[in-house]
Amino acid sequence: MTLLLILLVGGILGWLASILMRTDAQQGIFLNIVVGIVGALIAGFIITPLIGGAPITSGSFDILSLFASFLGAVVLLAIVNLFRRGSVR
Q: Which segments cross the bilayer (predicted)?
């Protein structure tokens, strides 16, 4: 059940991050899920030690963990855009 929630919440967070970074037209639902999950992993290593909480990949679904995972997805898309286009946005 937790894996299903991680996939669902990761997809939603990846979709919201792609809207913020203006890459939504280039991504499908599968890539949104991947961005959300990998963003949560990035949040676990980089963002969570700075702001506290836990990423969604640990099974925690509170506001701080959702925010950290969303920021991780935005960081991931910014890095991808930096290499793909030469600019963050």
A: 6-22, 29-51, 63-83
28-67 pLDDT per residue, tens:
888 888 888 898 888 888 888 888 777 777 777 788 888 8
The tally of domains found in the chain comes to 1
Closest CA to 36 of 8, 3, 64: 8
* HSE value, Cβ hemisphere, 13 Å, CA-based, for 24: 12
Evaluate whether residue 76 is within a structural domain: yes
Residue 66: Cβ within 10 Å count: 20
At residue 74, the pLDDT reads: 92
In a domain, 20, yes or no: yes
Contact of 22 with 89, CB cutoff 8 Å: yes
